[in-house]
Amino acid sequence: MNYDLNKPDPAKKPSIWRAMKKMWPLLVEEKKIIILALLAVIVNSVLNLSAPRLIAHAVDTFIVGHDYHGVLVYSGIILIIYLFGLLTSYTQIRLMGGVGQRVLYRLRNQIFNKLQSLPIAFFNQNRAGDLISRINNDTDKINQFFSQSLVQFFGNIFLMAGAAIFLLSLNIRLGAATLAPAVLLLFITLTLSPWVKRKNLASARSLGGMSSEIQESLNNFKVIIAFNRRDYFKKRFQGVNNENYSAAVGAGIANNTFTPIYGLASNLGQLIVLAYGIALISSGQFTIGLLIGFLSYANNFYNPLRQLAALWSSFQTALASWDRVHEILVMENNLPIIASSAVGNNGSVLEFKNVDFKYPDSKDVLRSVSFNLQKGKTYALVGPTGGGKTTTASLMARLYDPTTGEVLLDGRDIRSYSPEERARKIGFILQEPVMFTGTVRENILYGNERLAAYGDEQLEGVIRKAGLEKVLERFDQGLATKLTASGDAVSLGQKQLIAFMRAVLRDPELLILDEATANIDTVTEQLLEDILRNLPPSTTKVIIAHRLNTIQNADEIFFVNSGEVVRAGSMDHAMEMLLHDNRKS
Ligand SMILES: Nc1ncnc2c1ncn2[C@@H]1O[C@H](COP(=O)(O)OP(=O)(O)O)[C@@H](O)[C@H]1O
Ligand SMILES: [Mg+2]
Predict the structure, then answer these.
(1) How many domains does the chain have?
(2) What is the pTM of this model?
(3) What is the pLDDT of residues 484-502, one digit of tens each?
């Protein structure tokens, strides 16, 4: 599966109608409220449409007949109609405002949950900043459309349709002439829409790009300062900021092209009414009252049309944003849980069977690799940097699936385990320890259901029993030591200690350490090795390390390079392979 959002699958390009259909589920729960809001809008339109008819009647009977009492009564009625109009339009705004916010809330939840369900490959290929922008900015554009535009959109169309009917029924020829500019307008709008949407998509994309740039420089600020690259990043930021500026200006121009054109059409319509209407009056086919009413209906037709111009842009913006949100929502995890295929357990905890693996757009990292790990033994993976050790370990924990071949955990295809089962069986200490804002305690217990409810004293007891109390002493305030965002308050070595405690306390069947002690002093490392040795005898350990004594203590050494994972036999042979390999390259 292609996870690169910047290279969308052309076959899956969402059309307007398909996008609208996909948007529908967001609205289903709001159906009642939307119907209520639409009713308010319809009542509002009917009220607005009845006023000109009453005015025309008042002019032709009361004013022409000098009946001022009648004029007063009619004015009163028209005032009440306008007041009701105000009430209905306020109701509509309130109802739809709520709908917009709830859609926003649900949509953000949906995207966030989707992101949580996606595999590592997705995050390898997309920049966090762009994803954040999709969650924050794009969903808000959709919210604006729902809260401000959707019902007005229908309201205006309804108002226009009503006005058009009145215009045509009052005088069909004059009516048709008045509406002619609108038909031209419809044609222009439909022609320009794809361009407007494209401009809005470019604008949303560049906003995502800017967000990525900010995120990257914030993540790497230490390197930026250490290497004095501030100017370079400033320049890069200026670049994306400029790009965003022009894209936003482009979208602004596109969104506003409609407004003057619609204004012109509206003026043309009124001009036609006046010129043609006066000609009709002078030939005795029309009355002044009707002309006033007619002008009013022309206004009732063209004013909403002018508003539609703005609404149409808002619709195009929302569609562009919806594309970006939808791209995430249709992503599927390419690591599905398959039906269990019970294979005879030959005593091995983990087995690779003809495993091939490559990252998207990379060369093969593993080629037809087969080996198996026996319960309770300790294995060392050695090999040159970039040789594929981390990749092999990642496949053991199913961070990725093999391109072809199988990985068996306890004799069963690893793909048939639920994520919970798998996480319970496997403890993985990543090469780059990941910390969360919070205390050492919270970081140690991350994802550990068994110990989560333990009090501090109880937990310290467990830690002592596992032999980890000396490790905990490396932290000033023990379990209560605070880690700031991204764990800057502790050293890299300390982070590795936390990751170590986190994995060991889960009591996994298979413990994988990926250069987990690379930043730890020799004495503490010795301590960790003792702790590993004292784990239950059934625990299988896979250790990726460079220090000789660590490798030496393993039951078996695997050499990982050039797509192969092979048994090295002895320590000496492994070193020979490593030296030979280094000389070769
Ligand atoms: N996320 C990734 N995307 C593409 N290629 C990768 C990725 N991670 C590692 N690689 C490539 O896979 C190869 C093996 O990397 P890795 O398993 O991390 O090596 P080691 O842990 O032995 O140093 C390297 O050539 C590296 O460039
Ligand atoms: Mg590595």
Answers:
(1) 2
(2) 0.74
(3) 766 567 888 888 889 999 9
